[in-house]
User: Fold these one by one.
Assistant:
Number 1:
Amino acid sequence: GAGVSQSPRYKVAKRGQDVALRCDPISGHVSLFWYQQALGQGPEFLTYFQNEAQLDKSGLPSDRFFAERPEGSVSTLKIQRTQQEDSAVYLCASSLGAGDGYTFGSGTRLTVV
Amino acid sequence: AQTVTQSQPEMSVQEAETVTLSCTYDTSENNYYLFWYKQPPSRQMILVIRQEAYKQQNATENRFSVNFQKAAKSFSLKISDSQLGDTAMYFCAFMTETSGSRLTFGEGTQLTVNP
């Protein structure tokens, strides 16, 4: 597609529910990134894929967070047993390679109630 | 640790005037990339300008230019002839060669352009 597409745009989850957030990167972009952006703050790195390989997951805040990109294109960020502190905007970005500016999606705003 | 500091949480400017947003960063590495991103209410982060640290010449993109001072670890963004559409949150970010393409962002500066 022309841009990075994320869905859903908004998600409200009850505490304890599992959620899955989808990212469809720009076709041909090898690198894919997930960031978490709390209200009023800058994005914080979560994880990075190069094709289907998850090369860095050091930013995932707990083992309740899991990301996958099985065929090297679409990626899913899953959060199990959501907590209130998980409320944030989750941004996905893709790029052709290191040093290139990312192209970001519009994010998913997750609210845990 | 690698950090980015934006010391101006909010700024405002009159339409058609010039404004400068400041950014400082800290890294022990010599090779890195610096970026300014714009985030309007739509939430999509839009790349405004990028600078390679090994280049001494300051990057320019139309009305946007940077003042890159490597020794001072400073990377400010100048917006000339400000337009109402420039109203947004602006984030400074950098990426090092060893960070695995990870971007480190500052806290952001909310810029408002007034008519």
Number 2:
Amino acid sequence: QQQVKQSPQSLIVQKGGISIINCAYENTAFDYFPWYQQFPGKGPALLIAIRPDVSEKKEGRFTISFNKSAKQFSLHIMDSQPGDSATYFCAAGEYGNKLVFGAGTILRVKS
Amino acid sequence: NAGVTQTPKFQVLKTGQSMTLQCAQDMNHNSMYWYRQDPGMGLRLIYYSASEGTTDKGEVPDGYNVSRLKKQNFLLGLESAAPSQTSVYFCASRSVGAGELFFGEGSRLTVL
């Protein structure tokens, strides 16, 4: 049973546009919310993560927005580039403990 | 830097055959994990190990067994493979008290 719901399943964005992927979780004990990026034939790699003490975290063109009361968090990719084309997974869990992953979003950035 | 290494990368089995997927990490991490990735279902945890000699079930453990005899190795076994076990398997490791999971490149298993 999925405890982390991710949407959309797939996303096509024009180069330079903003990509937005949303996730919702159920377990209020979760206090760690990472996003992983996966290129074809490779394993997932950590992109950016947030703890619930802040509502937003930015690293370069990637931003996580976090809404604790709604139990939702999202990934924004600004100025999306063809090299950002990949599968993105959100995840949630208790920090240092096992993670529950969303179903994934396949992002394609058209040049 | 090898990180997390999985073998084999590809394997085809017939229904009922057995095999072991191997995972090795050189980062001295205490925790290790086995996930399976299926289209539309994300990454689902099969088994994990918080330390050498200990293992626990994840979300989808049925049909699998694991072994963590050495800190750097985590083995995933299929005793009697079924077509439903056709998937891409990922091993991951994590340091104590850390958040980041480090993944291997995956093992693609097909059961005919």
